[in-house]
From TrEMBL:
InterPro entries: Glutathione-S-Trfase_C-like, Glutathione-S-Trfase_C_sf, Glutathione_S-Trfase, Glutathione_S-Trfase_N, GST_Omega-like_C, GST_Omega/GSH, Thioredoxin-like_sf
GST C-terminal domain: residues covered: 215-357
Keyword Transferase among record annotations: yes
Taxonomic source organism: Zea mays (Maize)
Pfam families xrefs: GST_C_2, GST_N_2
Cellular component GO terms held in the UniProt record: cytoplasm
PANTHER family: GLUTATHIONYL-HYDROQUINONE REDUCTASE, OS02G0814800 PROTEIN
Keywords linked to the UniProt accession: Transferase
GO molecular function: glutathione transferase activity
Annotated protein name in UniProt: Glutathione S-transferase family protein
Listed Gene3D superfamilies: 1.20.1050.10, Glutaredoxin
């Protein structure tokens, strides 16, 4: 006998959920989001659980961020449209014109290597009493600002731009540091760092004792070294960090480390760039080197080598750091915060890494052993060979 098939089960029609149930379920999800200490994380879990975001969302956000990054970078660091290479804007007040009054005031920012030059020269030449200084700090908008803890000692302004605007005819453009101000004439004297430090050397005159950072007999050599240091090293690190194309970065990094290799060779047999005397060329190189491992190596992608991997350059940096009053001009915490927390397009999260051990005060005060080096007879590596 064939077994008979069981009768089919009655068709079960699933009733749609009641609108009140749907509303309650939606409200529960929203309640979980509202109750979460991290609403964004809770929202993403509701939208796509533990999976990665949808591909379309990733593409859209990446495109939007890239567009916003390019917009910010064009304002922060103008570039050559053809190459993507960083093109630094020229100073608005590039030279000291005429003879300023005796009521001068210096405006600086501690993170800035260009302003640091002026602080080092001011300290080495003993100009603190003759040249008061106001220290601006980077604001949330990236503009140099003043705070109750770091005020504008001359006018009590909130922004450095407001000080610039006091000059006759007002001011448009970037309010940069360092800026030398004539308080009697209410005018900007200069905001080009190399011209400011040369002016400070002339201002010090005979009052600087045996130290002359801009001696007439070495000025040609100083300018020659500066013509190499500025584009390849001082500005070279910025050309790496602000490059907006791979080709622009590759070119800048190659030039930077080529110059550092040659400087290392020169300083292996010569205590300072121009022999056994510290000059403005050394000050200008120092303010970049003291920041190299601290910020440029990581944030600006100057990663081929650390400064600590150059024995002569690292000892040379320690040599200058240990000179009287120089260390007091080097605020490592302000330097790191000024880069990692202010340069939003390069570090959107604002996370500040721990400083390298080679950049702490104890390491920088280690013996450098460079006293044994005498002046270079005929200069072992001519500056022309470095270019």
């Amino acid at each position: 006998m064939w077994a008979t098939s069981p009768p089919p089960l009655p068709l079960q029609l699933r009733r749609p959920p009641h609108p009140r149930f749907i509303a309650r379920r939606r409200n529960k999800r929203l309640d979980r989001i509202a109750a979460s200490q991290d609403p964004l994380t809770a929202l993403t879990r509701v939208l796509w659980g533990g999976a990665l975001p949808p591909a379309q969302l990733v593409v859209a956000v990446r495109h939007g961020w890239t567009t916003a990054w390019q917009l910010l970078m064009r304002q922060l660091a103008p570039s050559d449209p053809a190459t993507g290479g960083f093109a630094r804007a020229p100073a608005r007040f590039p030279a000291v014109v005429g003879k300023p009054s005796s009521r001068l005031h210096l405006y600086v920012g501690l993170p800035c290597p260009w302003a640091h030059r002026a602080l080092v020269v001011r300290a080495l030449l003993g100009l603190e009493a003759r040249l008061p200084v106001s220290v601006a700090v980077p604001g949330d908008d990236g503009a140099w600002s003043f705070t109750p803890g770091s005020p504008d000692l001359l006018y009590g302004k909130r922004k450095l731009r407001e000080v610039y605007a006091l000059r006759g005819g007002g001011f448009e453009g970037r309010a940069s540091v360092p800026m030398l101000w004539d308080a009697e004439r209410c005018e900007v004297v200069c905001n080009e760092s190399i011209e400011i430090v040369k002016f400070l050397c002339d201002l010090a005159g005979d009052g600087a004792g045996d130290l002359d950072l801009w001696p007439p007999e070495l000025r040609q050599d100083i300018d020659r070294w500066y013509s190499i240091i500025y584009p390849s090293v001082n500005n070279g690190v910025y050309r790496c960090g602000f490059a907006q194309s791979q080709e622009a970065y590759d070119a800048a990094a190659s030039e930077l480390f080529g110059a550092l290799d040659r400087l290392e060779a020169h300083l292996a047999g010569c205590r300072y760039l121009c022999g056994d005397r510290l000059t403005l060329a050394d000050v200008c190189l120092f303010t970049t080197l003291i920041r190299f491992d601290l910020v440029y190596n990581t944030l600006f992608r100057c990663t081929r080598r650390k400064l600590a991997e150059y024995p002569s350059l690292h000892a040379y940096t320690r040599d200058i750091y240990q000179m009287p009053k120089v260390a007091e001009t080097c605020d490592m915490e302000a330097i790191m915060a000024g880069y990692f927390k202010t340069l939003f397009p390069l570090n959107p999260g604002g996370i500040q890494p721990h400083p390298p051990a080679t950049c702490d005060r104890e390491s920088l005060l280690r013996p450098h052993g460079r006293e044994a080096l005498s002046s270079a007879a005929g200069t072992p590596l001519e500056a022309a060979a470095v270019s």
